[in-house]
Batch of 3 targets.
Target 1
Amino acid sequence: MKKASWIVAVVLVFSVFGLVLAGCGGETTTTTAAATTTAPAGDETTTTAGGETTATTAGEPVELSFAFFAPETSFPGVASLWWIDEIGKATNGQVTVKWFPGGTLLTAKNMYDGVLTGVADIGLSCPTYEPGRFPLLSLNDLPGLYTTGLQGSLAIYDVVQANLDAAELKDFHVVTAFSMEPAYIMSTDKYETLASLKGAELRTPGGPKILEALGAVEVGMPQSEIAQALQTNVIAGLMSSREVLKDFKYAEKCKYIIDYPLGQVTFLAVMTKAKYDSLPEYVQKAIDDLAQPFAEKGGEVMDAAVKTSLEWSTAEQGLQTVELSAEEKAKFDAALAPLTDSFIASVAAKGLPAEDFYKQLQEAGAKNK
């Protein structure tokens, strides 16, 4: 009897001791014969060594706010929603993103300041809309660099990554950069020559004075006012990428488009370096790993939207594409050449490596053609 009681006591002691060990440190331990593996960070990290598996739950979930000035149905909005889904997948659901499209949190005029002051963790906007803030990036607005959105997106992404130490980017961690396709002149009246554009009042998104160089009258106005301006003949057309013909129904008024690619608008998504540094390493890695795919997605969505837009505009709205003769194309080229030279010179006058940056854009465009 005494021996049996002694055995029971020993068993109880070891059982209690085991429970105490299991409760310490919030970890549970099980033994398996599996090889050493590590599960993706952000869910549970499981390490097995010498037949022993230890599972520990990761830290608190991370929530990021993401602001964008245009509707989520626009091509940058679609690309951003893709990124939001992918960042969740890459972190096993540990990162969630609160999405604020359509200027509901920050607009195109205060996006980058809003990120710097912490109104949003991530902001996506166009450097073009804040003149003077991104002088080197503004060189990507010049005509003649690209022919598609994908080519432009991959090119500007490569060049931005190679120039992260530029003064205009010093306060930011770049989430990604991508590009629209080149802009085209779409109009209510038919313009077939350079001379015919003289005096035409056309809306511009800003940036280099491309329309002015072609003899037109540049009219600055927000996207929200264009439809009404076309309807009331305040403007005779606009310079923009061609997806807007369908997305904003501009093809209902603009029946002509000149087949001559002009400048493009850059999109830049950023967060502050301080915010980035505060994130767990696995979240930082997920953001950086998705930077190039995000840029590529932007270009792909852009080009797909343009294809759909042109098909709809031609079939449903009778859009006509105006092909320039070789002689007229040469006139357009000659009219824009001084603009490019003077724009590069104006950036260089600020003590910046404008010529080198522009050369990088040209080389990246050729590489990604």
Note: The first helix runs from residue 2 to 23.
Target 2
Amino acid sequence: MSARSRPTVPLAPGEGVDDPLAPSDRTHQAFREILYESADGVARITLNRPELYNAYSTLALRELARAVWNAAVDDQVGVIVLTGAGSRAFCTGGDVKEYARRFVRRPHDYWKYMAVFREAVESLLRCGKPTIARLNGIVVGGGNELHLACDLSVAASHLYLGQVGVAVGSVASGGATQWLPLVVGDRRARAMLLMNERVSAAQALQWGLVTSVAPSVTRNGEWIASPTTEEVGWAQKEERGYRIDLRKLDDAVETLTRRLLGMFPECLRYTKAQTNFWKELAWNQTVGHAQEWLALHFATAEPFEGMHAFVDKRPARVAELRQRMARDGNSDYLHGPPTRSCGACGETGLPEQFRYCGRCGSPLAEDAERASGGR
């Protein structure tokens, strides 16, 4: 019998090679920007970038998807809890410094990045197990989209939720434009998306944006039921006897996990799949288009200005872009459309606002004519 036709004997799972459908005992050792632990039927995944308010990088998103997959195939796990490190933020969305450094320079790479983001979001949506967002701090931008991808959420009382897309030159079409109208209603969703309004924990509970709220601010050891913005600031700085305390948040999450673990797992899985209908419909009808549009959009002036303004910690020059649009008919290009050519070296596609060639430095045609007095 030839080698080509020699029959093979399949290995049993775990015999000689790792079973690709089994959870890995080494998963927790492989991550750099998230934490993963599993115990007592609960997998806990923590975005571990507290110095950046748990803003996710491309690597963190890929690790998140891997962690969710590991929990999904682990038959000892019944519930997945997603949270952020520390007490300042659950997640503030994408790492804008990475956006400015990479995607403004290489817009087509944003298409690749969006594929990684979709994988992370869809892992939460389709993992077949109930997911709980433990909201331990600020929930903004893509952080709110990860939150919306989860089934249930418990919010610490000191946080706020919101979207920031249109303020930084982007669009929150990674879950927020699709799902906020389903969760909070059309008008409230538009206020969050178009004006980037902040929503307090108490307001989020009233709107149905979170499942429950747990007290998280204390003063001299006493719980503050509805802390003011000023009190939250004191608590975060540990001033005037105020502190952030997440014990009641953890108690509330624990209560939810115990209740869910008391339900039949296959019934939970199919209930989740059925309940996902409207979310899946909205997502699948729009996210592919969003991936294409956002990648193209990163080559324009709006994300360039928005991202760099954020990194430089200055107000974005939105008024200037609007004036340019009114005057020139577009604001797509940083220095005008690429319509000019250099008579000296033959370079083409130079921005309309350039007076000198970016390749050889020669004055461009009409500028050269003006410099010579029209001779």
Note: Residues 14 and 144 are 39 Å apart (CA to CA).
Target 3
Amino acid sequence: MTLHRCLVRPLMVALVLLLALTACGDDGGGGSGSGGGGGAAQGDPPRIAAVFSGTTTDADYTFLGLQALQAAEDEFDAETTYSEGVAVPDAERTIREYVADGYNVIWTHGSQFYDATIAVAAEAPDVVFIAEQDTEPQDLPGNVWVLDRNFHLAFYPLGVLAGATTQTGTIAYLGGVTLPFSYSEVHAVEQALADSGSDATLTPVWTGDLNDPTKAQQITTQLIGSGADVILGALNLGMVGAFEAVKQESDVLITAKYTDKSELAPDNYVTSVIYDFTVMLSEILTGITDGETGGYLGMTFDQGISVQPPANVDPEVVDLVEQTVEDIRSGDIDVVRDVSPVE
């Protein structure tokens, strides 16, 4: 991978130092390139370009994408590049530039890029696209793989955990933006509370920005002041602020998403839903190598999703969460994917 420059903001530097994770990325973005489609002969090493919304130093969602790309270099002898910090209005242009540069696999890491990916895929039938979504779409172009994150599956065990640990009976969901996947997480927690017989109240709140620690800290402080003693965090970089808020309260617990964030508040941290895009990208690239130019692959507790063993809770709660995960895996618990807006 050719590296050109890092796009690092001060808060992200602080987070990286805290978690001892460092990474730097290509500014990507394509260019004049080869000027043609990226189709390669079956069996040739793939040339993979990724489009990231965040920065690879976030120790979070984008960093997981970088890890998957690096693993693809080793496993498939792939040539890789990426663009980070891509805004949704710039996505189609960025994708088209990678097509023009001759990349034959283009991965857009985030469901906000789905529409742009499908639009360009229809124009470039010789390129394979990997798009992320939170459902199984119908009538896909034949050159598109859909990676379904299944976020609702992951939040059901967190709902069980929250219902079993809250002392005040007030639980808060801290989201970033009101998107369908976020609604599905809230509804999964509601289902878990209902299924487990908990009478706890769930308060869902969105900060308006997945990566704003200041706003996250302010809102988390307000939630705690309103009686919430379990915070289910669903932010990216914004989680830094949420952890700062709970560290001031010895009796407030918090969960996170994507990566281990225990070092941010060891005495308040319970668990994180861990996502592994390395295994998902590997399976898709194996299919592409075998000539499968499109398909669907959903993340599950058997592949791509796991829950860290909970900390700072009673052993009985740890056992309950582990049993819940096993029941979802076996099919004994059916977590409904409900993306209807939360009132």
Note: The chain has a mean pLDDT of 90.
